[in-house]
Amino acid sequence: MTTTIDDAVRVLEGRRIAVLTGAGVSTDSGIPDYRGEGAPVRTPMTVQKFLAGDAARRRYWMGSHLGWLRLSSAEPNAGHRALATLERAGVTNGVTTQNVDGLHLQAGSERIVELHGTVHRAVCLHCGQVFDRRDLAARIDADNPWLVASPDAVLLPDGDVRPDSIDGFTLPVCTVCGGMLKPEVVFFGEVVPVAIFTAAERLLTTADALLVAGSSLVVNSGMRLVQRAERRGLPIVVVNRGQTRADARATVKLDAGTSEVLVELAARLRGP
User: Fold this and answer.
1) What is the pTM of this model?
2) Between 1.10.287.130, 2.20.25.420, 3.40.50.1220, 2.70.98.90, what CATH number should domain 1-31+76-116+192-272 receive?
3) Which of 80, 116, 120, 126 is catalytic?
4) Burial of 168 by CB count in 10 Å (0-12 exposed, 13-18 middle, 19+ buried)?
């Protein structure tokens, strides 16, 4: 069955919408997605590897630092701005995102649930002290003045760059207790904190429809929200290039880019 944006508008118009976004929303900001056509091969860091030894942590922090320097310069795209417009108009009740890039916040969205955390903060696993990534980046630069990203280095979907070597890299540590630092993101092998998932569920309970944009829903945290929406009988609109795990559950599925669709929805939808 062929569906169009007119079908999506008919389903969503007059309803209060909960939004779930994935990596496809940020591709127009220059951040590669995980599974789209041409996506780079990724070997994501697992929490087990990260905790296992200094070598894995050096590899992660070196690549993550080089990637963050590029990721932090990314700008919100038209899709991010369209979602902020819909929230200000009262059409949506906020955004739950699987992305860790912080671009929804930069675009002006105010009610944001970051399912997988953010690369813009780090936390000490020993004392709980939280660090702004900008301050941490300055420390890493000072401790590793030789570290420069190759202009040919490929930014990976996890927001890092794969380093050629980790030799000589000095790990950042907590300035309060000397403990181990970890970015405030949910690694593979970790579970989304209960309070965060509950906040995402709360958006669903105050919504009349669910809009999924730019996610294949391979990661279970997003798919669980779709299943909850289905159990509540909410209409589900999915916008994503390529297949998703929710295609059979969707009221409307648009195989299209998120930016253009979200801009059109922002122009056409009226609030409840």
Assistant:
1) 0.92
2) 3.40.50.1220
3) 116
4) exposed
